[in-house]
C-alpha cells in the first residue's frame, strides 16, 4: 500500500508535532519506541500524543511526551466524534507543524485535516508487515530522518512504586523476576497451563534466585491462581492490581517474559525485555514482537497457520502444543544472553 503524506520541506526541525494513535492499547504501545527515537533525533521539538481516554496512562507516564490529549467515548464512534469536537479548539491552538496519523481512520483523518499541518503522513493499515515496521515507514516518509526501535522509554513512575507493588504481592526484594503471560484472547492462542508449570521448574533449576510474576486482568486470574497453587513460594501475581502505566513499569523490571499474543507482550519488547512470544492462531506478520531480544514462535509454517479462529478446528491447538517446555526453555536461554 502506498503511503499518503506531505514532506517537511524546511531545513530545521519542526517546533511541535502531534502523533495520533487511538486504539488498541497494544497498538499504542508499539508506536512508542519509534516516537522515542524521533525525539532523540529532534531534541528541540515538542511532541504531543492523541489517543483514547482508556489508553492514555502509558503515554502520560513517559518523559519524552510534552502533552497527551485523550478522546472519550470508549469504542462508541458517535461519542468519540463528540469528544473530538470538544478537543479541536485546543488542538488547533497548538499550531502543529507535523501530524503523524498512525491510526489512519475517518476520525483521525478529519482531525489532521482540520489542524492543517505543514507536513503529515497517514499510517499503512493493511500491508502484511509488522505494525512496528509500518510505524517506522510512516514516520520516515515525512522526511525528518530515519527512526528505529529505541527501548529507552524513561517513565515518570519511580522505582520505589514498582518495589512497593512487587513486595505487596510477595516479592522478597532480591530475586530476579520472570513474567509469565498466559493471556491469549482465544483458546486457539493458549499454550497449555501445565506447560507453563514445567517451564517454571526448568527455569528454577538453572536460575534458583527467581520469582515468577503474573500481571493483567481478571481474565487470567484462574490461571495465575493455578500456577501459584502449584508453586506458592515461586509465583506471585498482581492481577487487577495495576493500571496500564504501572504494569508497563513493572514489565521493565523483568529479566524475561514468556507470553502469548497480548498487550503485555508489546509492553515488554518495546522496553528491550527479552520476550518469547507464542502465537497460535494470531497473524505474526502484523503482531510479532520486534528486536533481536525477541522471538516469535508462530504457526505460519503450517497449512492451517494464522487461521484467526477462536478455537482450533482440530481441537488440539497443534500449532502451540508442538512446542515443549524443554524447547521453550532452550530458546529462552538464548534470548536472555542478548543485550538490546
Name the features.
six-stranded mixed sheet; Rossmann fold; alpha/beta; 340 residues; six-stranded parallel sheet; single chain
Structure report:
With 340 residues, the chain is an alpha/beta fold. The chain folds into 2 domains: 4-141, 3-Layer(aba) Sandwich (Rossmann fold), CATH 3.40.50.2000; 159-336, Rossmann fold. Helix content is 38%, strand content 17%. It has 13 helices and 12 strands. It has helices at 25-41, 57-61, 77-93, 106-115, 131-141, 159-168, 193-206, 221-230, 244-251, 263-269, 284-287, 318-321, 325-336, and strands at 4-6, 16-20, 46-52, 67-71, 98-101, 119-122, 176-181, 210-216, 235-239, 256-260, 275-278, 294-297. A 6-stranded mixed sheet has the order 1-6-5-2-3-4, sandwiched between helices. Strands 9-8-7-10-11-12 form a 6-stranded parallel sheet, with helices on both faces. Strand 10 (256-260), helix 10 and strand 11 form a beta-alpha-beta unit. Helix 7 (193-206) crosses helix 13. The model has no long low-confidence stretch (mean pLDDT 95).
Helix and strand arrangement:
Elements: E1 4-6, E2 16-20, H1 25-41, E3 46-52, H2 57-61, E4 67-71, H3 77-93, E5 98-101, H4 106-115, E6 119-122, H5 131-141, H6 159-168, E7 176-181, H7 193-206, E8 210-216, H8 221-230, E9 235-239, H9 244-251, E10 256-260, H10 263-269, E11 275-278, H11 284-287, E12 294-297, H12 318-321, H13 325-336
Parallel strand pairs: 2-3, 2-5, 3-4, 5-6, 7-8, 7-10, 8-9, 10-11, 11-12
Antiparallel strand pairs: 1-6
Helix pairs in contact: 1-5, 1-10, 3-4, 7-13
Amino acid at each position: 500500500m502506498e503511503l499518503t503524506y506531505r514532506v517537511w520541506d524546511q531545513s530545521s526541525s519542526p517546533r511541535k508535532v502531534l502523533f495520533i494513535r487511538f486504539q488498541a492499547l497494544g497498538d499504542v504501545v508499539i508506536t512508542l519506541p519509534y516516537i522515542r527515537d524521533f525525539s532523540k533525533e529532534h531534541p528541540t521539538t515538542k511532541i504531543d500524543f492523541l489517543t483514547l481516554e482508556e489508553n492514555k496512562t502509558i503515554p502520560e507516564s513517559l518523559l519524552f511526551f510534552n502533552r497527551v490529549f485523550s478522546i472519550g467515548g470508549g469504542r462508541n464512534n458517535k461519542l468519540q466524534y463528540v469528544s473530538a469536537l470538544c478537543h479541536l479548539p485546543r488542538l488547533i491552538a497548538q499550531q502543529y507543524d507535523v501530524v503523524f496519523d498512525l491510526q489512519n481512520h475517518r476520525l483521525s483523518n478529519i482531525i489532521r485535516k482540520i489542524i492543517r499541518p505543514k507536513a503529515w503522513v497517514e499510517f499503512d493499515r493493511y500491508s502484511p508487515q509488522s505494525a512496528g515496521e509500518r510505524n517506522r515507514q510512516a514516520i520516515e516518509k515525512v522526511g525528518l530522518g530515519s527512526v528505529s526501535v529505541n527501548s529507552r522509554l524513561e517513565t515518570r513512575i519511580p522505582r520505589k512504586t514498582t518495589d512497593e507493588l512487587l513486595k505487596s504481592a510477595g516479592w522478597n526484594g532480591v530475586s530476579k523476576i520472570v513474567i509469565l503471560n498466559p493471556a491469549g484472547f482465544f483458546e486457539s492462542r493458549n499454550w497449555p497451563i501445565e506447560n507453563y508449570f514445567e517451564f517454571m521448574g526448568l527455569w528454577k533449576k538453572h536460575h534458583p534466585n527467581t520469582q515468577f510474576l503474573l500481571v493483567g486482568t481478571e481474565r487470567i486470574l484462574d490461571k495465575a491462581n493455578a500456577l501459584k497453587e502449584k508453586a506458592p513460594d515461586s509465583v506471585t501475581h498482581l492481577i487487577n492490581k495495576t493500571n496500564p502505566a504501572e504494569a508497563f513499569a513493572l514489565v521493565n523490571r523483568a529479566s524475561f517474559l514468556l507470553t502469548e499474543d497480548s498487550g503485555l507482550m508489546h509492553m515488554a519488547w518495546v522496553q528491550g525485555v527479552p520476550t518469547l512470544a507464542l502465537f497460535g492462531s494470531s497473524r505474526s506478520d502484523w503482531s510479532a514482537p520486534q528486536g533481536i531480544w525477541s522471538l516469535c514462535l508462530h504457526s505460519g509454517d503450517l497449512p492451517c497457520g494464522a487461521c484467526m479462529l477462536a478455537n482450533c478446528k482440530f481441537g488440539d491447538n497443534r500449532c502451540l502444543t508442538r512446542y515443549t517446555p524443554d524447547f521453550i526453555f532452550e530458546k529462552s536461554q538464548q534470548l536472555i544472553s542478548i543485550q538490546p
